[in-house]
Amino acid sequence: MGADNEVNAGQGSDRPLVLDSYGRLSKKPDTGELEKVEDQWADNREVIAEIPNAVLGLELADGMSAWRRGARRKDWEKLLARVESGESQGAVIWHTDRLFRQPRDLEKLIELGESGYKIYSAHGTRDLSNPDDRYALRIEVAQACKSSDDKSRRIRRRFKTKRKQGRAYLGGPRRFGWPGKEALWTPGPGESEEDRPDVAPEKLEGEREAIRTGTDAQLAGIGLGTIAAEWNAAGVRSVNGNEFVPVTVRAVLERPANAGLIEYEGKLVGRVDGEPIVDPEKFKRLRALYAGRRRGRKSGETGQTYIGTGILRCDCCGMRLTARKQAPKTYPDGTTRATYYCAKHRRGCGKVFADMRAVDNAIMLFTVARLSDPRRAAAVTAARTRHSERLDAVEKEITLCTSLQAALSDRLGRRQMTLEAFDAANEPLVADLARLTAEREELEKVSPTGPGQAASKDALIAEWTADATTVADKRAMFLNALGRDRMTIAPSSRTGKRTFDKSRIKVIPAAELITADKE
């Protein structure tokens, strides 16, 4: 059996052991106190310092639950992937309870242990190569799983009792319009979390009044965007201090608790004590109003409406532009004017507005110029050929490395080679795979897009202006010409004659975007 702090799977080699440190915010098994991830990492570092020839890899951590079957523990998955790929030779955990509470997670660990990888623990000793220890560990994990199941059952029962008692607020962050602790309070000198005050009564009443007026406004046909703007102008903010947008206004208004109703999984299970915030009959009408709204386009509408929405971006904040009509304003031909703009209600800066017809004309000229440029078409073809040839070569090398690793693993499993020999042969393969995989991702990211053959300008213009060409067709042509580049629109200077300035439109090459992302 291994050392007191070791859960291992066999003997190591003289080369450095890269060990990842894993922690999970949880309670101590023996005392029930919350153990911080930072403290677990510190203990794990001490364990690594005591292991001969070991070095720290990544420090990984996940949230509270190792029990919920649907929960994804991204850092736990990353830990497994690094060990399986050979980037690390094992892991250090603070306690087996941090690692898993589901038997299937234990089996994953045992599979790694049987492959020769090492798992160390800051508390407890288990040797995964020892059948007796594997048996004992399986029992411990089964008990931990049952303990979590029992706890979940008790919590559900407690919540059910609270709902029957008329309590709609079961814990967690305070909800808009409901009493609780003030989320925006910050402790001063000598103060702690225990000193956090309740939300002020006048603020609470202001929130409740906003819910009442918002409900009345929706029933009167006033839009969510208008309600959000009115709330923001009046200084009404979310529980966390954010301005409202239409989707958050609706989320507040459609809570059953506003009408004194307690629902669970869509069913009425109780009623809140005291006076409801809004009249229950009004809430029923509001819910019917929301239920009657069909998602998607109105009847008779087909296809895209605007060429540039979702493709054009704001030059200030980078958000995608949307569009809207400007009735009753019209163009000279009588059609309603429309504008591309950066929408504040979609977390944009709201600084960019541009006439749709002027922008669409600029998009057409850009599309025709690009798709008819023989130099660009030749450059795309040449670059695509170079990328394709190199990408094919990289794929072949990756396949070769993977097949070699599989052959080595098979020989190790058949005990036709020692673990030391496997490590020596696998190490350069792991390094090559990491390098080749990174190169493949980079090649796929910068692979040129666009036509490999230039088209006639006249033919392109005729196709763009043809009656049979839909907005979706024009968007496809625009995207084909734009490729991986980005088109942005800058704010207007607001000086001189109110005509559209074409210099506001910028095309940013994909290479600059990649460089900016890396920085």
TrEMBL record:
Transmembrane domains' residue ranges: none
Keywords attached to this entry: DNA recombination, DNA-binding
Domain Recombinase: 189-296
Pfam family, one: Recombinase
GO MF term list: DNA binding; DNA strand exchange activity
SUPFAM superfamilies found in the cross-reference section: Resolvase-like
PROSITE patterns associated with the record: RECOMBINASE_DNA_BIND (PS51737)
Name this protein carries in UniProt: Recombinase family protein
Source organism: Amycolatopsis suaedae
InterPro entries found in the cross-reference section: DNA_bind_recomb_sf, DNA_bind_recombinase_dom, Resolv_N, Resolvase-like_N_sf, SSR_resolvase
Highest taxon in the source lineage: Bacteria
Span list, region Disordered: 179-202
